[in-house]
């Protein structure tokens, strides 16, 4: 590929005290790719995503987005990032519409009402827009969290185990939603414990183990059955 | 890398000699204070320990403050070691200053405690740095412990002059009954022992700091080695 | 700059909106304040010749303890629900989040004070509600909220959580409490604001100093 990658990670390290979580990650992500990141618990998946989201500061190495070091201009990078984490980042005591309205203000979006109504419709929560998030099911909360992450139309979408705690039906619906709203222009990096779901969405597969990238391949050449032995080897069969 | 073994040994020896000389000057060489009643003249000699202890404790917390600033700038573990080592020593000297002040208060004013601005400020300072270590000990992750310690070390140190001013103004609005500075006035011939006491305590502080830094670096290295081997 | 103010306002609006629904913070602070007044009443009833003499202390101590209760809540919900990360994702300097939270805390404590003043006036029979005293309270509460918001963010990330907050906060708050009690005494004894120049300067200096320090250090408190 001749174009510069959108995200360039070089020699990335992160240690919490003496506990080294990331031990040197090198990764180039072209714009528009969709990546599934697998790895056992504690492999550093969340840490990697948090560093990309500028929530955590690396101990070594660098991350460049569109050629700009994220340490140099974290505010600028954040404008182009959407994050769906373990936690929905929503307030129980605000309604669905109020939550999105609050985030619209954080991102300085003008005339956000139409965009909010549109997103709520597309995630199927428009009828419940005035209800407090407290009353939502886990699946509804997660769909609202996706709407929240896409509110400012970010170029990069980070998804940290978005399917955790969802029943298969809700997870299916979320996957469909991501495929629909993700769009081909958006760059997506998603961690998951669900091999098939990751493959379903991604065009590239990574496995992170022991703080290093141990596997990197195009999803086009892989199917779930072929990947399974490798996955079990690195990630372990215990993962759901 | 902490201070070298040779530097630590040299400072230890220097501190020992300086402290012995300071004790001699305070108890033998300095003349009796003539501006106070004879019964409390021996007790007055505590000034040669009280004031240096108070001065050195502030020096120690100043070092913690500066090291905290440097830590936030650089995230280098060295500055966290400096900050916490100096704060620990500072607490020791603060306790010495409060205790010696209280010992002086008993013969001078027939009470173990006065709410004198300085004594009160030092008590608050003691609480500040106890809180500093309580905060640190309630955090497991070393990076966060160092960062939060540095932030609190900055807030704490900056509040000290304001605390002192506020307590002082509190007292000056009401008539001041006890003015310790009047009794602490230095007569002729006493200045030498006083200045030397301050110098000796400062050397003692640096010797203690050097020992502490060396110990902390050893602890860091042992932990790193253990991590490496296991 | 406009974006910065927008984020401050958004965070403040969000906290006020949630509080207007749950009333968690206000209720706990207000109930605590009433209890404190009752206890102070028993503490002084038979031993102090005139209860009016102790009202400055009662006022500031009650505000300090009720305030620390409210401040403790400031980051608990954000932390437990993980929503703090959502605030930190805002594409502006993180100090905007600090100022939003700080203003929310300031308003909560001020509301409790406005609730407290008539109660003290009634229970202790002292006319406390004067413009001068309101100004003193405002200045003191700004310093309280400025330092308290930072320390609340520190405390919530420790094992001890909000139990640690008063231990961290009160020694640093001492100048404000001393200045507050002392100038309230002055006002009750007939001083005017002009007579309290020293104390007003101390308040202003304290507020400004710690707002700046909090502004400069907040990044280190919330990042990982």
End-to-end separation of chain A: 35 Å
Q: Kindly state the number of beta strands of chain A.
A: 10
| Tally of DSSP β-strands of chain C | 0
Q: CATH H level of the domain at 2-77 and 197-240 in chain A: which superfamily?
A: P-loop containing nucleotide triphosphate hydrolases
How much is the average pLDDT of chain C? 92
Which CATH architecture of the domain at 2-77 and 197-240 in chain A would you pick? 3-Layer(aba) Sandwich
Form type of chain C = globular
Kindly report the greatest chain-chain contact and the residue count on each side: B-C, 30 and 33 residues
User: What structural class do the secondary elements of chain C suggest?
Assistant: mainly alpha
Provide the low-confidence segments of chain C as ranges: none
| Count of folded domains of chain C | 1
Number of helices of chain C: 9
The average pLDDT of chain A is 88
What is the radius of gyration of chain A computed over CA atoms, rounded to a whole number of angstroms?
18 Å
Q: Which percent range fits the helix content of chain C?
A: over 70%
Care to describe what's here?
The complex is a heterotrimer of chains A (about 240), B (about 230) and C (about 220). Chain A has about 240 residues and is an alpha/beta fold. Chain A has a domain at about 1-75 and about 195-240: P-loop containing nucleotide triphosphate hydrolases (Rossmann fold, 3-Layer(aba) Sandwich), CATH 3.40.50. In chain A, about 35% of the residues lie in helices and about 25% in strands. A 6-stranded mixed beta sheet of chain A has the order 6-7-8-3-9-10, sandwiched between helices. A 4-stranded antiparallel beta sheet of chain A has the order 2-1-4-5, covered by helices on one side. In chain A, strand 9 (about 205-210) and strand 10 (about 210-220) form a beta hairpin. The radius of gyration of chain A is 18 Å and the shape is globular. The model of chain A has no long low-confidence stretch (mean pLDDT about 90). Chain B has about 230 residues and is an all-alpha fold. Chain B has one domain (about 5-230). Helices cover about 80% and strands about 0% of the residues of chain B. The longest helix of chain B is centred in the C-terminal third of the chain and has 39 residues, at about 190-230. The radius of gyration of chain B is 20 Å and the shape is globular. The two termini of chain B are about 25 Å apart. Chain C is mostly helical and about 220 residues long. Chain C has one domain. Helices cover about 80% and strands about 0% of the residues of chain C. Chain C has 9 helices and no strands. In chain C, helix 1 (about 1-20) crosses helix 6 (about 95-125) and helix 3 (about 55-75) runs antiparallel to helix 8 (about 165-190).
């Amino acid at each position: 590929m001749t174009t510069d990658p959108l995200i360039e990670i070089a020699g990335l390290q992160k240690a919490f005290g003496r506990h080294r979580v990331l031990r040197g990650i090198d990764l180039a992500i072209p714009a528009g790719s969709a990546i599934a990141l697998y790895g056992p618990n504690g492999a550093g998946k969340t840490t990697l995503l948090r560093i990309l989201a500028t929530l955590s500061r690396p101990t070594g190495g660098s991350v460049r987005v569109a050629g700009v070091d994220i340490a140099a201009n974290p505010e600028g990078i954040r404008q182009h990032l959407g994050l769906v984490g373990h936690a929905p980042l929503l307030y129980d005591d605000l309604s669905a519409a109020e939550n999105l309205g609050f985030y619209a203000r954080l991102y300085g979006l003008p005339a956000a009402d139409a965009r909010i109504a549109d997103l709520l419709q597309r995630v199927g929560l428009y009828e419940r827009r005035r209800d407090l998030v407290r009353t939502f099911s886990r699946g509804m909360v997660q769909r609202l969290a996706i709407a929240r992450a896409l509110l400012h139309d970010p170029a990069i979408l980070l998804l940290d185990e978005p399917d955790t705690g969802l029943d298969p039906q809700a997870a299916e619906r979320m996957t469909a939603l991501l495929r629909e709203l993700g769009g081909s222009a958006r760059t997506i990096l998603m961690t998951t414990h669900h091999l098939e779901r990751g493959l379903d969405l991604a065009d590239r597969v990574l496995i992170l183990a022991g703080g290093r990238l141990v596997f990197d391949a195009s999803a086009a050449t892989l199917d779930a059955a072929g990947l399974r032995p490798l996955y079990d080897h690195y990630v372990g069969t215990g993962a759901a | 890398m902490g201070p070298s073994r040779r530097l630590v040994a040299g400072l230890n020896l220097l501190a020992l000699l300086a402290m012995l000389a300071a004790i001699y000057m305070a108890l033998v060489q300095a003349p009796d204070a003539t501006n106070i009643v004879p019964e409390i003249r021996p007790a007055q000699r505590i000034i040669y320990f009280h004031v240096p202890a108070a001065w050195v404790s502030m020096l120690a917390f100043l070092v913690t403050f500066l090291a905290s600033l440097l830590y936030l700038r650089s995230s280098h573990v060295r500055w966290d070691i400096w900050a916490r080592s100096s704060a620990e020593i500072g607490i020791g000297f603060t306790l010495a200053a409060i205790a010696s002040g209280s010992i002086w208060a008993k013969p001078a004013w027939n009470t173990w405690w006065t709410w004198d601005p300085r004594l009160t400020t030092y008590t608050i300072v003691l609480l500040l740095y106890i809180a500093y270590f309580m905060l640190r000990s309630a955090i497991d992750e070393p990076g966060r412990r160092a960062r939060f310690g540095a932030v609190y070390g900055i807030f704490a140190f900056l509040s000290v002059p304001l605390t002192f001013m506020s307590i002082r103004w509190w007292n000056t609005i009401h008539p001041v009954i006890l003015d310790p500075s009047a009794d602490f006035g230095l007569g002729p011939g006493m200045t030498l022992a006083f200045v030397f006491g301050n110098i000796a305590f400062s050397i003692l502080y640096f010797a203690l700091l050097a020992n502490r830094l060396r110990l902390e670096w050893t602890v860091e290295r042992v932990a790193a080695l253990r991590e490496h081997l296991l | 700059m406009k974006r910065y103010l927008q984020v401050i306002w958004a965070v403040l609006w969000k906290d006020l909106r949630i509080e207007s629904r749950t009333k968690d913070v206000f209720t706990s602070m207000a109930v605590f304040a009433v209890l404190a007044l009752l206890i102070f009443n028993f503490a002084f009833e038979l031993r102090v010749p005139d209860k009016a003499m102790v009202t400055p202390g009662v006022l500031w101590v009650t505000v300090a303890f009720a305030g620390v209760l409210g401040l403790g809540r400031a980051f608990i919900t954000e932390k437990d629900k993980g929503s703090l990360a959502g605030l930190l994702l805002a594409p502006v300097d993180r100090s905007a989040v600090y100022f939003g939270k700080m203003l929310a805390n300031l308003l909560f404590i001020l509301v409790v004070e406005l609730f407290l003043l008539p109660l003290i006036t009634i229970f202790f029979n002292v006319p406390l509600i004067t413009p001068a005293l309101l100004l003193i309270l405002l200045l003191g509460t700004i310093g309280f909220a400025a330092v308290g918001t930072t320390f609340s963010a520190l405390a919530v990330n420790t094992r001890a959580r909000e139990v640690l907050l008063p231990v961290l906060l009160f020694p640093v708050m001492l100048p404000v409490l001393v200045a507050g009690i002392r100038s309230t005494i002055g006002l009750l004894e007939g001083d005017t604001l002009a007579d309290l120049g020293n104390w007003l300067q101390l308040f202003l200096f304290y507020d400004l100093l710690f707002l700046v320090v909090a502004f400069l250090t907040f990044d280190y408190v919330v990042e990982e």
